[in-house]
Queue: 2 jobs
Job 1
Amino acid sequence: MIRTEHNGISWYSFESLRDPAIVQGTFTRHGGVSQAPFGTLNVGSTVGDDPAAVQANHARLFSAWNIPAERVVTVQQVHGNRVAVASEQDGGRIFPETDALISQIPGLYLLLRFADCVPVFLYAPRQRAVGLTHAGWKGTLQEIAMQTVRAMTATFGCQPGELVAGIGPSIGPCCLEMDGDVLADFRARYGQEEGCIVRPQANGKAFVDLWRINALQLQAAGVQQIETAGICTSCRRDEFFSHRAENGKTGRFAALIGITAKA
Ligand SMILES: [Zn+2]
């Protein structure tokens, strides 16, 4: 991952997705105006932060990338597996009950919000198409990363083998301890796969590797080039918001991808 800073706003981008035809980044929690526990670049409007601060944070973020707010497309995330296609007229739109966006429109930017859930970035260089997925544990169990690849294939004619994928900063297998029915669901689906459920504890709990499970889903969909950031949001609260590590009282950081207007 490459960390870039501009006017106090900082973001991480994938080396393997570097291409003048696109911009992509996972923003840190720094450079905004929100107060604790949302300090400081919170883009979540449903977490209890001052709406004026959230709006100012968006403006700072868009300014750092020099993108107009009316060209940003976002969603109301519900931990489901619905994928929406963002078209020319969707600039400024908020898609209801959607957890992934795909687009082929130059100068249109896809924005999703995170605090432990897994951002999956997708880029098809030949078709010049992009995708962004919000995969928490619920979305991962619903195979949303795989659904996003399928949507790009069906909508833009991408070959899955041509796609480049990035698995962004999110809670890692070091910190995602699970138990009960949810762990049982993960065991039933991925218990036979190496490295997905790790470090079983005497009390029946175990750690789940959402990075690896999402990578397996991408591979199953035919994606071969996958870069995993390997940055755990729970370990790196100095850079990112972590819903789990901050007991639910925290902000959301932004992930963005878009096709540049020129290039
Ligand atoms: Zn961790």
Job 2
Amino acid sequence: MTRPEHFVDLGPDLLHEQTLPRAETIPSGWFTEPRFHRLDLEAVFATTWQYVGHLHRLVEPGSWLACEAAGEPVVVVLDLDGNLRAFYNVCRHRGGGLALGDGCGRVLKCQYHGWTYQLDGTLRGVPHWNLVELFDRDDYGLVSVRVETWDGLVFVNLDPEAEPLANVFAGVSETVAPIRLAEMSFHKRVVYDVQANWRVYVENFLEGYHVPIVHPELMRMYDFSNYETDVSEYWSLQHSPLTKDEHIYGQGGRASYYCVFPNFMLNILPGRLQTNVIIPVAPDRCRVVFEYYYSDTESEAARARIAEDLEFADHIQDEDIEICEHVQRGLASRGYDRGRFSVKYEGGAFHFQNRLRRAYRELIGSGRERQAPEPLDPQQDDVGIRFPDQR
Ligand code: FES
Ligand SMILES: [Fe+2]
């Protein structure tokens, strides 16, 4: 089987949204080609809210957390007046790094030649600078990044024009109620490295179709015939009643799985909430960060339930990682190009692929695309992404 022309194409027929019962999946090259990794950083990750951590990491005035968004270094700061701020974590002298990890202090100091910045981003100390001419410190403050919070979770956005975070989460708080994330206790952070494109992992999250095959224990907890998917503009929700038989989350209740485009998830089961963020690392690699929150972390019974939950979630994650890594190899095969969707169980993955198409269309419409998809290594990457106006 030879590669079809649309393998790395972004022609209008591929960017056009179809109806779910007739839709084909996006081409496999979109999951495997290095150019699409760079395109995703530009079109998707540099234009959406990226979760960077919980506010509990920024309690002390003067504290900061070092993070990444769209592959770029960012630092989020709680300044001495209690204002949350974010900046590119890049010194304006010659690009040195400021915060190399989480920290706390009165200034941010570059780790290269020691320029210091106030926590509002203004340049303060510039060592050995008396012979420099035509230099105004005001021209060399840190470059700001947007930062907003939702229910105690901190997000940054590299796009100054992006929708406010509250608009993106509109409807989530209402449907999550009565669970209040801000009132739950943070328990643990777990990081997984996955040998698959970030979209493979996200799409796997977005459908319950694989549950009976990949997760037999999880399947026993669900009333699977009532597993449903709802989609909204910025997010999708899968939900299922849990069986009335005893399970590790009690009896009955409901599982709710939100995915806020592109890479943030809320997994809600009785008494517990887990956030996931999926970070693209390379065309065939992503990092998955789980954070666990519980309504009760103190009692002995609660601690036993938490231990059971962590073990069960880790087991389910192992099953998901294994299948995602198989899928990544399948997508890279000449034996596969495009597939179809289950209407009942894969509406979330379909919604996600349409959001992706929209992000690409918006990038094309903005005229920014020429900066993004240039190959880094022409030897490895000699097939161009063709935008419609280049045909
Ligand atoms: S690069 Fe920061 S002080 Fe030189
Ligand atoms: Fe799964």
